[in-house]
Amino acid sequence: MKSTLTILLFASLYSSLKCNNVNPLIKLDLTSNSLNTKLFGNETYAPYGAMSGIASINVPAYSNGNDTYISNQSNYFYGVYTGMKWQCVEYARRWLFVRKGCTFDSVVAATDIWTQISIVQQVVGGKCFTLKKQSDGSKTRPTNESLLIYKLGTDMPYGHVSVIVDVLPNSIRVAEQNYDANYWLGNYSREIPYVLLNGSYYINDSYPIYGWISVEDNNQTYPLNQSTIDKITRQNISFPDFVCSKGVLHYCFSVYCYLLFICFTFGLSSMILRPNHA
């Protein structure tokens, strides 16, 4: 009887994954961890490295075991660096890589994404896309496939980042790593309510939020596919050269130098043309 039940559970799980069109590029772990997700929901503790859930068809999240644990282990996906196992930033970067073929530059903490990252870049091709930031309390409703950025807090010394994977009439659903160490209930980690107050949208989370960031790609990005993977392999890309960020810095530095030159020239001209009353 037990063996029959086990076979039925595996058959049911396989059928649900097949119906969801899981990308064959992602090797899913059909182990007892996955069964725990199906049977017990998100109240079951997921040990370090266990797959806690899958979002956006084919982006699995892994448990960090404890939100204070720092593995100091780098993760690479198809040879491309995505971050430290299994931190929230690693998931956000890997989600962007799998779903949009893009990544962003290094940050010390998740909260720094809000203040330091303004551009994402395609891993293959190097095309740059700007990020649009909407502060909590924005007139614009939270948008799907945006990054939700948290501020520093007592329980969040590095802040936090989640990916908005669904927007409902009164709540959002997010995917993430290292918020807690539980298995997900469905294809998202948490559902967070939001309210419309005096024409502004506020997300009602337990922790303070900066806002959400969306990629302005004009439908020019696309999910990771075999062709892109082959190019990554041939070009031996492990971490892109962020020409976009360097271009912005170079532009700002050039403008700064130009203004200094104008001020210096104007000041020097004034000194030369000033009449001598001695």
TrEMBL record:
<feature type="transmembrane region" description="Helical">
    <location>
        <begin position="248"/>
        <end position="273"/>
    </location>
</feature>
<feature type="domain" description="Peptidase C51">
    <location>
        <begin position="63"/>
        <end position="204"/>
    </location>
</feature>
<keyword id="KW-0732">Signal</keyword>
<dbReference type="GO" id="GO:0016874">
    <property type="term" value="F:ligase activity"/>
</dbReference>
<dbReference type="InterPro" id="IPR007921">
    <property type="entry name" value="CHAP_dom"/>
</dbReference>
<dbReference type="Pfam" id="PF05257">
    <property type="entry name" value="CHAP"/>
</dbReference>
<keyword id="KW-0472">Membrane</keyword>
<keyword id="KW-1133">Transmembrane helix</keyword>
<feature type="signal peptide">
    <location>
        <begin position="1"/>
        <end position="19"/>
    </location>
</feature>
<protein>
    <recommendedName>
        <fullName>Peptidase C51 domain-containing protein</fullName>
    </recommendedName>
</protein>
<dbReference type="InterPro" id="IPR051705">
    <property type="entry name" value="Gsp_Synthetase/Amidase"/>
</dbReference>
<dbReference type="InterPro" id="IPR038765">
    <property type="entry name" value="Papain-like_cys_pep_sf"/>
</dbReference>
<keyword id="KW-0812">Transmembrane</keyword>
